[in-house]
From TrEMBL:
Name of this chain's protein: Arf-GAP domain-containing protein
Molecular function per GO: GTPase activator activity; metal ion binding
Domain Arf-GAP: 1-69
Stored InterPro entries: Ankyrin_rpt-contain_sf, ARFGAP/RecO, ArfGAP_dom, ArfGAP_dom_sf, ASAP
Keywords from the named record: Metal-binding, Zinc
PANTHER family per the UniProt record, alphabetical: ARFGAP WITH SH3 DOMAIN, ANK REPEAT AND PH DOMAIN-CONTAINING PROTEIN, ASAP FAMILY MEMBER
Pfam families the UniProt entry points to: ArfGap
Superkingdom of the organism of origin: Eukaryota
Protein source organism: Ciona savignyi
The keyword Chloroplast appears for this protein: no
Amino acid sequence: MGVHVSRIQSITLDDLGTSELLLARSVGNDNFNDIMEDKLENEMKPTSHSNMEERKSFIRGKYMARRYVVHTCADDAACLADELGQAVRSCDVFSLVQLWAEGADLCCNLPSTNRIGLGYSPSASSTCSTTPLSAITSL
């Protein structure tokens, strides 16, 4: 598509937090695209001949609707939380990107019996916290 088109267009589409940006940077563009385009058929990707509306539609489908992501947890919140906890504990950045792409909240408390090691307080509630980000940035 070209930086001259996609970078300028993406400014109005991006709503990524620090944790998402760190993950994308950590895995690199090719690996990030492998996850975000796993179900994408080659003929569906815009070409240099595609018009602007086709390009915008593709970008929105890829990043906002995450239309081309393979869902390993079938949108099950408990499964996503469990997998997220495993990925953080094992420092598996690629799994973190996959789970983010599936809709996992990278800022939620992780289900774990030993939260102290990840910066959790024993009385932490189930509301969001920034602990997963601090675990990611230490990778």
